[in-house]
Specification:
single chain; 336 residues; alpha/beta; two-stranded antiparallel sheet; globular
């Protein structure tokens, strides 16, 4: 008989009082960002995650242009009292865009977006509500003030930010307690470590890394752009193109070598590295396949040595995270 899977241990997100499983599930890829979605397999993956002890499930109103929230809400309805449901607002399409580049942090929009998400999710409250990207034209105090009104109304339990600057984080936390910052953090996205991790810990804010597998690259799932569907977002990502891709494949070879020494998969090593960043860190690897979910959860069994960590820490990715880096580390204008 094979051993039982390792239970998902709990971690506290900063000093917010919100406790979740150490690995969550990012649900974005169940929709169409990385090629066509598969609703049946996606729902099966969500159900398997609940079965395995995952408690934090992450979506956003922009994923699948609202359809991801509907799918996630339907899949989690039978387990609503057992899980922590997180969603986001603030990214909007602008006329003529093929990719969402607009932001809206106006107080009236905050309320509208929340009500719409509650309806799509089929729930009366959101456990963790993030501003997906800061609106540079709206003071963060106004946006978070409106989010605080949602907490007072019982529609939201905890507040979060995503890809916010140090200034935005500090001003937001001065307006209302912030439970979590969701930003990209992995072996090939380390800029968060320069200042933001320290500020979050100073303020008691938990950290929820998205794309902890480098959008699949660190799992060894991509060897060329030809591996990606024509509609896959990653085709336009600088790290998946030209010389940057070649250098990043060498980085993946190093992850594979460490994995071989631990009897693990590359994905498990990459996740174990993120988990080792601190007990206030809860990565949300995304997948739409049950087999990848089970593989990811195997990271909980991987113990990296000090030598492993030094070897991994030395890796340097090539290429920018996004073609337009103004899309991250965002600051809002001062409050008047």
């Amino acid at each position: 008989m094979s051993p039982s899977p390792t239970p998902v241990p709990s971690r506290a997100l900063g000093r917010s009082g919100l406790t979740v499983g150490a690995l969550g599930l990012g649900c974005m890829s169940i929709s169409t960002v990385y090629g066509p979605g598969d609703e049946t397999e996606g729902i099966a993956t969500i159900h398997r995650a609940v079965e395995r002890g995952v408690t934090l499930f992450d979506t956003a109103d922009i994923y699948g242009l609202t359809t991801n929230e509907e799918l996630v809400g339907k899949a989690l309805a039978p387990y609503r009292d057992r899980i922590v449901l997180a969603t986001k607002f603030g990214i909007v399409f602008r006329p003529g865009d093929t990719f969402p580049r607009g932001t809206n942090g106006r107080p009236e929009y905050v309320h509208q977006a929340c009500d719409a998400s509650l309806q799509r999710l089929g729930t009366d409250h959101i456990d963790l509500y993030y501003q997906h990207r800061a609106d540079s034209e709206v003071p963060i105090e106004e946006t978070v003030g409106a989010m605080a009104e949602l907490v007072a109304a019982g529609k939201v339990r905890h507040l979060g930010l995503s890809e916010a600057s140090v200034d935005t984080i500090r001003r937001a936390a001065a307006t209302h307690p912030i439970a979590a910052l969701q930003s990209e953090w992995s072996l090939w996205s380390r800029d968060l470590e320069d200042e933001i991790v320290g500020v979050c810990r100073e303020l008691g804010i938990g950290i929820v890394p998205y794309s902890p597998l480098g959008r699949g690259m660190l799992a060894g799932a991509v060897s060329s752009a030809d591996d990606l569907h024509d509609t896959d977002f990653r085709r336009g990502n600088p790290r998946f193109q030209g010389e940057a891709l070649s250098q990043n494949l060498q980085l993946v070879d190093e992850v594979r070598a460490v994995a071989a020494g631990r009897g693990a998969t590359p994905a498990q090593v990459a996740l174990a590295w993120v988990l080792a960043r601190g007990d206030d860190v809860v990565p949300i690897p995304g997948t739409k396949r049950v087999r990848y979910l089970d593989d990811n959860l195997g990271a909980l069994d991987v113990e990296l040595t000090d030598d492993d960590l030094r070897r991994l820490d030395a890796l340097q990715p090539a290429g920018a995270r996004y073609e337009d880096m103004t899309w991250v580390d965002r600051t809002t204008r001062p409050s008047e």
